[in-house]
Amino acid sequence: MIIGVPKEVKDQEKRVGLVPSGAKALTEAGHKVIVQTSAGVGSSLKDQDYVDAGCEIMATAEETWKKADLVIKVKEPQPSEYPNLREDLLLFTYLHLAPLPELTAALVKSKTTAIAYETIREHDNSLPLLTPMSEVAGRMSVQVGAQYLEAPNGGRGIMLGGIPGVAPANVVIIGGGVVGHNAAKMAVGLGAHVTIIDRSLDRLRYLDDIYASQVVTLASNIYTVRETIREADLVIGAVLIPGAAAPKLIRREWLKEMKNGSVLVDVAIDQGGCFETSHATTHSDPIYFVDGVLHYCVSNMPAAVPHTSTFGLNNATFPYLMHIVGKGFKKACLESNAIAEGVNTYRGHITYPAVAESQGQEWAPLAKLL
């Protein structure tokens, strides 16, 4: 199989879909790997690193897409990449289709088979390809929150950990999953007052056991969320419904009750965001204000640390990539329920129900189509 690695084109996206060590394993297994020139530069990986791994360097993105049987990326195809989609192409990347009907339509129209990292689900309900970037985003959410709480950046002028005689910042984390857990690690480590809100009591018990008296855990409901964010300096949205649009947990009218200069960081923005006032931003233009509350809603947060993110992502994706190219698409899906769960579109059909439901579309079970 020919595996293509194009350079990412999303704003400030410097990650790359495959590192040289993975490429080397693929070439030694008899596959061909083609890499667009400079694809890895943003992650401190040179073209020569790929050449040494047995790859062929392509001059253009179009050439890389056209010659590949399978394209491995990091972020969902951008509009400029839609013309590269085609019927005999396998696409393996983050997709987050629920809030992107135009991309869904492009994949369906082109009959591209698209496997989404974020919906690959193992038998224990874990999401192994979402986890590493959730870890990065969770930890980054506190870093960027601390940065934007500083007065020169538009915030209240609050230091997360406070100092002796001055109270620390109030950090509220909505969602106690991978993102929330990693955000809590950072916030607690910096000395903030941390509250975690989640609808799962079992998850809250787990977090309470880990952090003991270092965090406050609250069961999620409308009243709890509204009352808690009133006193918050930093709110981190960390909720996830795999493949589906994120629920809107903070209403616009509540922002008027929040502190002026407080910060909202919406890590759920890839799935449409979990605040009513959220809309996707970029690393080039990351923030905006609504009713005096600063919003940070960058849809590819881990791209700010591309070296760490690229290697963390490849550690997780590579075993699945090797299984797909080694067995072929159909056999890989039949042998691995996790990979089958990852398929979002196949030969002109939406195959992931949460995506179809979010967009009011019909879907078809992959098993029947195969």
Describe this structure as you would to a colleague.
The structure is a single chain. The model has no long low-confidence stretch (mean pLDDT 97). The chain contains 13 helices and 15 strands. The longest helix has 22 residues. It has 370 residues and is of the alpha/beta class. α7 links the parallel β8 and β9. The chain starts with a strand and ends with a helix. It is globular, with a radius of gyration of 21 Å. It folds into 2 domains: 190 residues, Rossmann fold (3-Layer(aba) Sandwich); 174 residues, NAD(P)-binding Rossmann-like Domain (Rossmann fold). It has an 8-stranded mixed β-sheet, sandwiched between helices.
Key features of this structure:
alpha/beta, Rossmann fold, 8-stranded mixed beta sheet, 7-stranded mixed beta sheet, 15 strands, 16% strand
